[in-house]
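S.,

Sequence below, as promised.
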Amino acid sequence: MLTGSRHWKDGGSDELQHHLGVSGFAEYTIVSAHSAVRMDAQLRPEIAALFGCAVMTGVGAVVNTARVMPGESVAVFGSGGVGLAALLAARASSAYPLIAVDVTEDKLALARGLGASHCIAARQHDAAAAIRDASAGGVHHAIESMGSEQVLAQAYAATRRAGTTVTVGLPAPGRLLSIPALSLVAEERTVKGSYMGSAVPGCDIPRYIAMYRAGLLPVERLLTHRLPLDEINAGFDRLARGEAIRQVVVFPECVVLED
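The prediction came back faster than expected:
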């Protein structure tokens, strides 16, 4: 937990770790009150769950970190839950052109349905070159959601002079980013990290829910599967095959215990 304490045991005396302080793939869990945000009681639980990670991270990368303005161009690398949430936020910010990049045709089709003006199949095209062609020399903002240093380098190459590259992905700790160092100065470009969308959950999640209520963030379209806890491994297999955007584990009931 945040305090360093552990509350799980394996049935004996051995303590178990709380994965990321949540341990969500369990029938019962303990979370810090500092990590909890009161939600609108009328919001369906499977929709509310989306705001805790994918929406907060993707939307926050656009509105908090990149601070996209109307009419600015945006390219989003990766059309998973985080990338598509970023695309929704860029559309709500009136970005144009709004370009989605992915290797999966089904995800690109969904990105187009969610408002992408251009879709680039990364296996068939030089993504950075295609983006520069579609945006008159490069985009104002490139959002990388893949967690790949190679994709991050492509996102950087896709920006224009004075452009900003924002990365929300988490590559392996030993991976290194290689970019032309001179361009940082000569072209005044910027690279920014965005952890969980640079968000303050207690402030930002209610704001994003309000955008959802207003029809600006149709996040329900990111929910592709619901599954019970005993099918969690099938959910991971589906994720590995690229067949899901966001999956939600549905429990029979939810009981919150307060001190």
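The chain has a mean pLDDT of 91.

Coffee later?
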